[in-house]
Amino acid sequence: MKIIFLGAPGAGKGTQAEIVSERLSIPTVSTGNIIRAALKDGTPMGLKARAYIEAGELVPDDVVIGIIQERLAEDDCKNGFILDGFPRTIPQAEALDAMGIVIDKVIDIEVPDETIARRLSGRRVCKNCGNSYHIDYKKPSVEGVCDACGGELILRSDDAPETVLERLAVYHEKTEPLKAYYEKQGKLFIVEGQEQVEDTTALTLKLLEE
Ligand code: AP5
For ligand 1, is residue 115 a contact (CB within 6 Å)? Predict the structure, then answer.
């Protein structure tokens, strides 16, 4: 199965992608995670992306499309995948179609902007491995310490309140039009994001099983 998770920053795409990925035994391809790893490793692509990410802007389409083309050609994507954070613009969606990739379902997770601001200010990520937690919804066993690797948990640089506002503005302008794009293709399914992660997951899995 080939699935896209759409939604505003902090809507819960990454969280749902991780759960569904395990359930269906297909990989999650997250452009945000790939770019952050490149940034951490100081690769040329990471250096190019840094200013965009820190300002809450989108990385240019040609860079992201190149990342996706390479990643989807890898062996583990042969039997399906979940796209988390791609496409984010109409040209990115058109590029995916031009690659001949046929998406089965696009799940749009809808969460009001006010909820997003609260969620992202509580998110903590591991400085070392990038695992994601939340101070209320997904607590680590020991406060401030990653369960997976023992690394320090920090606030993501683009989760600063003023950057979140910019990311939301960019989402409404550039990414939200994708809903109409996929609705026209008959592939769009809406999930109302719930207060508890497992309640959102139940709605998501129900849609995927239909
Ligand atoms: P990216 O990493 O994709 O960031 P994003 O879309 O802004 O997504 P987030 O990771 O912030 O949110 P999410 O929806 O995954 O929420 P999560 O599950 O973590 O991209 C970062 C940057 O990279 C972009 O700004 C851009 O610069 C660049 N980039 C990436 N892809 C690009 C592209 N295609 N084109 C151009 N540039 C690109 O949940 C958020 C928090 O809420 C978590 O802590 C979670 O635990 C918590 N939470 C609380 N309640 C719930 C609930 N009920 N359901 C789910 N989560 C909940």
Answer: no
